[in-house]
Prior knowledge:
Layout: H1 4-11, E1 15-17, H2 26-29, H3 55-67, E2 71-75, H4 79-90, E3 96-100, H5 105-114, E4 117-121, E5 125-126, E6 129-130, H6 135-144, E7 148-154, E8 161-162, H7 165-174, E9 178-182, E10 206-210, H8 211-214, E11 222-226, H9 233-243, H10 250-264, H11 267-284, E12 290-292, E13 305-306, E14 310-315, H12 321-330, E15 333-335, E16 337-338, E17 342-346, H13 353-368, E18 385-386, H14 392-397, E19 400-404, E20 418-419, H15 435-446, E21 451-452, E22 459-463
Parallel strand pairs: 1-15, 3-4, 3-7, 7-9, 9-10
Antiparallel strand pairs: 2-11, 4-18, 5-6, 8-13, 10-11, 12-14, 14-17, 16-17, 19-22, 20-21
Helix pairs in contact: 3-10, 4-5, 4-9, 11-13
Amino acid sequence: MDRPIYNTLKNLSNYPFHMPGHKRNKKFLNDFYDFINLDFTEIDETDNMHKPEGIIKNSKEIISKTFGAEESYFLVNGSSCGIIASIMACLSPNEHILVARNCHISVYNGIILSGALPIYIYPTIKYNIPCGIDIENIKKAIEKYKNIKAFILTSPTYEGFVCDIEKISNFLHKNNIILIVDEAHGAHFNFSNNFPKSALQCGADIVIQSFHKTLPAFTQCGVLHLNSKIVDKYKLEKCLSMIQTTSPSYMFMMSIEYATNFCKNNKILFEDYTLFLKDLREHLKLLKNIKLIDKDILQNSNIIDFDISRLTFLINSSVNGDYINSVLKENNIQLEMYGENHIIAISTICDDFNSLIKLKDILFKIDKNLNFIDKQYKCVKDDLIIKPNITPREAFYKNKVLLNIDLCENKICGDFIIPYPPGIPILAPGETITKENILKIKSYKNNNINIIGIDENDNISIIN
């Protein structure tokens, strides 16, 4: 039988500096490998995820206690379903939600499904990378639009940058506004003081984490944490049931349970790991042309901390991330992300330290053969507060046509245009396409970055 997916995956051998967090390292997964005999459905003994009263309820309680939440919920459809359910639970149709414009596509999908009206604010841009959200822009938006019910932002960002969640949370709660934090890339924060504080510790109402990104869990495994006096818990649970499958994978739930238990009982491993990371980063700081982003990111960026396990490098040379990734692949190393001017390598507790050393050594070899270019990146603080004339939901249901990207300036976008990873839209349905958008899309394509929403003939969807 021809099995192209199986045959390809079986033969991939590059070391993974990308998701999932378990890194396929059997050293950490041996007692979880006998899973085929544990693939069950809902029967008397196995409980029901949508109405947990037995083993699933007990497991949820262990997770919530471990992470310091009032309640924790299994996400077997990934973090995306938790984000969508949160937006649906916190907003009714035509109510305003404040949205950090660098949010994941699932946020926009949640807006479409909920009928909420988005108000967009923009992150500070440093090194051409989205950074933190200025609380002054949040205040201005709330002053301008009096009926904002919730604010959603991403922290840490894909690059590992952390906003001042505590300050934002305190301000929002004074105005009875719910704070939803997409903490998909920060599930590991809870297990070492060498990582930033979790959004849960900083007062967020709902925190969504992708266990599979940085913990030893299967792809698609996540958790939603609730810690709030102003969120309707009953409605949230109903929305989660609407969004999630009625046939939840026990493999995924056991994987979430396993990751929680492993991390809770192996904090000494996290201490050894973070000490190693600190030493590794000191060496990586000596790179000249592939610059490790470190404490310098904290200045003028609305970022208060960063994740030391996220190895984000700025390219100060004529080459792009695709080139560096190709050289690393020749040495059996696969990056998580490579862009025009930066690359990302994800490290986790499950990494082999020797492979991290190998990554460092190869980067030094590449760096030695590059020419330095001082690109003079500007720090851009955008105070725009935008309420789109056509909401994502309205745009979703309008008639659309395909048009070549060169003819799309000032047209209304009918679909998402998304570089993947990380899944942050350049354009969302209902937004006006600018010349700058078009140039950015072309730049991504020229740098061999995969873009969803543009076809092989460079056509995109516009509203007719």
